[in-house]
Fold:
Amino acid sequence: MPVAPPPPQRSVVAPSAVRAWCYLVWLCWVRQARMRQMVWIALGLLALTAALIGLNTLGGRWDMGHWRWPWPPKPNPPTLTFEEHLERLAAERKAMPLVPEGGKLEPAERGDRAYYVTPLPPQAALQDGLLNSLRATLNESGFMVFSRWAIFAVFVSFLLPIFSLSFATDAVGGEREGGNLLWLLSRPLPRPAIYFAKFVALLPWSLGLNLAGFGALCLAAGRPGPMAFRLFWPAVFWGTLAFSALFLLLGAYFRRPAVVGLVYAFFLETVFGNLPGYMKRVSISFYVRCMMFDAAGDFGVQPEKPSIYLPVEGDTALWVLLGVTTGLLVLGMWVFSRKEYVEAT
Amino acid sequence: MQTSEKPTDGVQAMPPVPAAPVNGVAGRPLPPITAPKTAAEPVLLFEHVSKWYGPVIGVNQVTLELRPGITGLVGANGAGKSTLLRLATGHLRPDLGRVTVRGRPAWSAAAKRHVGYCPEVDAFYEEMSGRQFVLTLARLFGYSRSEAEDRTEEALRAVGMMDRSDKRLRGYSKGMRQRIKVAQALVHDPELLVLDEPLSGVDPVGRQEFLELFRKLAARGKCLLISSHELEELEKLTDHVTIMARGRIAAVGEVLQIRERLDSHPMSIRVDIDEAAGGLGRRQLAGLLLRLPDVVGVELGEDEELVVRARNPRQFFEEFTRLVLEENLEVRHLEALDDSAGAVLTYLLGGRG
Structure:
């Protein structure tokens, strides 16, 4: 082995803590790119959900045209679907005489074309109004159905927490399990700064997966998708931040953060989030939904029973999500700065 | 190099230190080995440090100063060596007392700038090459890219990995991984190097290279704290050792001095024989033991327990062995009741504890 040379003369350039922190952010961001089991699970769930949504789209199942009223459908006489109602109304309208009894066609000119006009009989006018409103409702019902069933019930309740968990629990928890946390804890960086760097590095991945995943589902939904994405992406954004802060904290505190996170996602978010009354307000997804209800209120997307659901205003929900994100982040920094990771050293 | 248990000039805040470490069971302290005082601030200072893991005590009232030079840290499994090292590197906080590096709490980020840690745990960013790994850890100190690259090359040259560090870490042998660990500990030129089993897995040639490296670092004024099971290797490196037993410092100082003190300090040894097998009763054995020149006393307890107090333990054990063979005794149990002395003796006799 060559003899260890004396240290070379070098200019004294003090190492920079800011530079170290920025490099840590970059390092954590790059290391998050390594695919892990939870990420594969999340992508698999995304693919499955997108496939199911796509099948519904192909089958034209998003609007209410195939719904029947009353439910359950009566076999005899057979209950018609809304689409069948519409067709029947259209057939009835077509069968109505154009010129009422005792009326006559009046010639008129518009440009180089000749028209015959006649005041519509009241019955025909009513039928036209009914047809148009029913047709408009059915045309726009896809957005409501897609929002209620795919976004609220599946994405917000289930996929959003899972997607956030897949990256966030691994940011600190993965380093602990791999025994690599000691390298970071041996550097002259304050522990809260290390934790904050982990959060900042995690966000592009969490946000990317959630927003891109949400976009993919909206794309698969066909016609109602673009409107859904345009209205709901801010709620997804803020919900992702809150969930990421939560699962990062779980990773800092628990040895098996993925397990704890899954229990949280399946129990607290899914069960509590759908309880009547005020219990649901402990779940992050409640506030995400409230933001969505507020954004899409003009399009008929509301809780089924607002008096039981008790939603909050969209602005209030946003502030709560911001507060939750900040609070969990500060709490995580405190926990990380105090905790002794004996197993990791 | 000074290793001292006593407060030195300049460490004014340090309370009075017991003259000698107190052992765990018998309560008889080993005679102190005093070291000359110096005015320089210690690099690493433990002041009445205790650390618990729940109900289990890891380190118990440890007071220790380290200055530039090499100090070996030895002790049986569970003696508290790893806990001591983790306290020194700021991975654990003491429950009582304080640990400081150049006057700064070891837990703080500022103190870690002065500390290079080579852990025993074998964990890396496996997807990186050795060079990338050391470079990454150098960048995490806040060096610019060019500075970090220069330092990385120096560190790799020092550990003999210049031409082998471009492969991925997952393909490295144990010895190569150990070299990379030492390299990352050196990359920022720290004042204090804490090395936990640095020779583990390293081939004999590599060991000599490391020993030479450590001597050079000590000659440059670095303070090295090296934990090892290999007392023989440590003795090649340094005369100064700290021996731990059951969370306490059993002995601190030069190995030669420790040996001499141990020889002159009576040690309590419990002896249990099978009377039926040997034909010799305990009382008769007690009489024979009293005739040995190094035995200063024999106690026969109510439950027929035989406790011998003897000087020169190594000499005593040789004579005792001869006695056992002559009288055809069947010894069921032989135990040093003095934890500290027992631990020291174990290591001085070359045992691993």
About this structure: Chain A has eleven helices and two strands. The first strand of chain A starts at residue 106 and ends at 110. The longest helix of chain A spans residues 122-178.
